[in-house]
């Protein structure tokens, strides 16, 4: 039996190398492991030494909750970035180049001359942001992150998908169309040959027609058997991939599709990026796409990629575009107290704590940037008029531009082909605005506070937000339907139907993968109580781009256990409250393994209404 292992082989089951992500030579860890929710995915731990010994256990069930891959800024963030860059552009119009005739505090620091070009005015007067960064979509590198995640998932859990090598291409939509057309032709032939009426004949021709009729019956039986077998075979093959759901945002659905392509890793369908609609890629000055890819350039609608089994709309209300509002386990917005008191609320504890920390932590950076940008000492105005005065939130925006611009510059083909030169200078120049230690001590801490108090352990409603997904997880572990009273944010129509919410079974799916946003992943991770109370929330280790929570059910020496991984880092039984065990297991590395019954014990609250009922508390009540 395949043993559980966390180490990834260098060559996959298909015999081709596993896709890899940028190493620290391309993306320095002191920066890109400290960009909070905008960090590109990296494993939270080197798990080679943490793997359970060979043949000790076998994974029999997997449920994974995964955030979408690296993207461009969302619409709201895009507008704020544009305002800041336009402000810098207007300021630089009055700042001369640093020369011997210009005082150092009057001119632009020579190391920042690149900023003039970056923010130079365009026809859209957006401070140069457009044509470099798109809006909300996955970057090509974000698409590759999803592809790589799917590929690695297959390598990790290949034994759950029997005969997978024969069905590699079967998960691709265009292959299914081909199969359907073949079956259609077979059915048409079957109908044409076998549905024709018998021809009456004289006694002289009866023996001949009788012989032909017998032959026709034999052919019909053969065609019918072949068609049924083919149909059943195709149906069986479709159960041999994870059951995949995606929340309805374009970047989330796109992530699920590239993930499925990576899972299939068909030699006939290698990775090909889908060109973003909102920005040209590659950026001007970056390496062009390989010539052998240009003729096969995929359409943005990515028809040639697999599709998730279920897409749950994110519409808050029915609209003219035909979107219908619905409950959504993967994007909870039906907790009214949270929507009112916490989400995007400038008066929330998360907003206050974040603003206070950022004001103090960025003071030195603001003073330094003012000097480098040519602002005279003693004030923000001079004889040339209003001069730039960056606010703490604008400094944080410039930190985020380090992440967004780098994600836009990264070339996945350089990674696929191990061509280092294609990703030379991929790190955005915006990263150079800050000292190396600023990323960990300022930006990472800011995002940690924002997520911890906004969505995770220090938000009193985080368990309510986590209730729907955890109810579904517990139901599958107990082989029963989810509790749907109250429905919380569970879509009861979908979860009541085994076609849209299947149970694990020997012949059905034994792996389930859901795609979501960071603000839904964070409360689920926090609600599991994987760490002790003194543990500090670290956003880059929990909800980076392509961040993932993986729950495994294992059979070990005839007993059922649970193992939980957060971005490939195993949770330890000795930490947190997720696994109250009275005695140590005899299994090696048992600090990663929680008996199934012990894991389910602390989660009885998810089927109770208490946590969800907090969503209806009036503002100002204790516990809000």
From TrEMBL:
InterPro entries: Acid_Pase_AS, His_Pase_clade-2, His_PPase_superfam
Keyword hit for DNA-binding: no
Pfam families named in the record: His_Phos_2 (PF00328)
Molecular function in Gene Ontology: acid phosphatase activity
Keyword entries, A-Z: Hydrolase
Top-level taxon of origin: Eukaryota
PANTHER family, alphabetized: 3-PHYTASE B, MULTIPLE INOSITOL POLYPHOSPHATE PHOSPHATASE-RELATED
Protein name: 3-phytase
Source organism: Pseudozyma hubeiensis (strain SY62) (Yeast)
């Amino acid at each position: 039996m395949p043993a559980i292992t966390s180490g990834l082989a260098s060559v996959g089951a298909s015999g081709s190398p596993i896709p890899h992500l940028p190493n620290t030579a391309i993306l320095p860890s002191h920066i890109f492991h400290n960009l909070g929710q905008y960090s590109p995915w990296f494993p939270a731990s080197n798990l080679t030494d943490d793997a359970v010994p060979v043949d000790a256990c076998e994974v029999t069930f997997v449920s994974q909750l995964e955030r979408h891959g690296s993207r461009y800024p969302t619409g709201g963030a895009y507008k704020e970035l544009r305002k800041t860059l336009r402000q810098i552009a207007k300021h630089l119009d009055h700042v001369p180049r640093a020369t011997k005739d210009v005082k150092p505090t009057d001119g632009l620091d020579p190391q920042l001359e690149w900023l003039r070009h970056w923010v130079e005015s365009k026809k859209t007067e957006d401070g140069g942001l457009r044509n470099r960064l798109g809006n909300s979509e996955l970057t090509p590198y974000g698409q590759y992150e999803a592809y790589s995640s799917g590929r690695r998932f297959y390598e990790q859990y290949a034994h759950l998908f029997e005969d997978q090598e024969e069905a590699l291409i079967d998960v691709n939509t265009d292959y299914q169309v081909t199969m359907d057309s073949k079956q259609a032709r077979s059915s048409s032939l079957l109908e044409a040959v076998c549905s024709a009426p018998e021809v009456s004949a004289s006694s002289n021709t009866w023996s001949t027609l009788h012989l032909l009729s017998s032959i026709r019956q034999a052919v019909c039986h053969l065609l019918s058997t072949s068609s049924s077998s083919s149909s059943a075979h195709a149906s069986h093959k479709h159960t041999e991939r994870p059951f995949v759901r995606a929340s309805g945002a374009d970047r989330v659905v796109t992530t699920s599709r590239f993930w499925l392509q990576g899972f299939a890793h068909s030699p006939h369908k290698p990775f090909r990026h889908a060109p973003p609609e909102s920005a040209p890629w590659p950026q001007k000055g970056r390496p062009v796409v390989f010539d052998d890819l240009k003729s096969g350039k995929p359409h943005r609608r990515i028809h040639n990629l697999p599709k998730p089994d279920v897409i749950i709309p994110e519409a808050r209300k029915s609209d003219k575009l035909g979107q219908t509002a619905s409950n959504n386990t993967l994007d909870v917005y039906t907790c009214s107290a949270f929507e009112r008191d916490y989400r995007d609320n400038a008066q929330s504890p998360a907003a206050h704590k974040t603003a206070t920390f950022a004001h103090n932590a960025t003071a030195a950076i603001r003073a330094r940037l003012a000097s480098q940008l040519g602002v005279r000492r003693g004030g923000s105005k001079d004889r040339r008029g209003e001069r730039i005065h960056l606010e703490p939130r604008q400094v944080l925006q410039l930190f985020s531009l380090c992440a967004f611009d780098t994600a836009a510059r990264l070339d996945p083909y350089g990674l696929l082909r191990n061509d280092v030169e294609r990703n030379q200078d991929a790190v955005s120049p915006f990263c150079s605005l800050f000292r190396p230690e600023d990323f960990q001590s300022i930006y990472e801490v800011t995002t940690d506070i924002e997520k911890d108090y906004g969505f995770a352990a220090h938000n009193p409603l985080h368990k309510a937000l986590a209730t729907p997904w955890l109810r579904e997880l517990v139901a599958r572990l107990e082989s029963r339907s989810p509790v749907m009273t109250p429905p919380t944010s569970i879509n009861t129509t979908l979860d009541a139907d085994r076609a849209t919410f299947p149970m694990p079974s020997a012949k059905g799916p034994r792996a389930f993968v859901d795609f979501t946003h960071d603000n839904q992943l964070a409360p689920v991770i926090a609600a599991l109580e994987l760490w002790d109370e003194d543990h500090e929330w670290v956003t880059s280790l929990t909800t980076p781009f392509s961040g993932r929570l993986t729950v495994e059910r294992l059979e070990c020496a005839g007993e059922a256990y649970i193992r939980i991984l957060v971005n490939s880092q195993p949770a330890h039984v000795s930490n947190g409250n997720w696994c109250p065990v009275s005695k140590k297991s005899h299994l090696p590395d048992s600090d990663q393994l929680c008996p199934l019954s012990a894991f389910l014990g602390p989660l009885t609250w998810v089927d109770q209404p208490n946590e969800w009922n907090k969503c209806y508390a009036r503002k100002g009540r204790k516990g809000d």
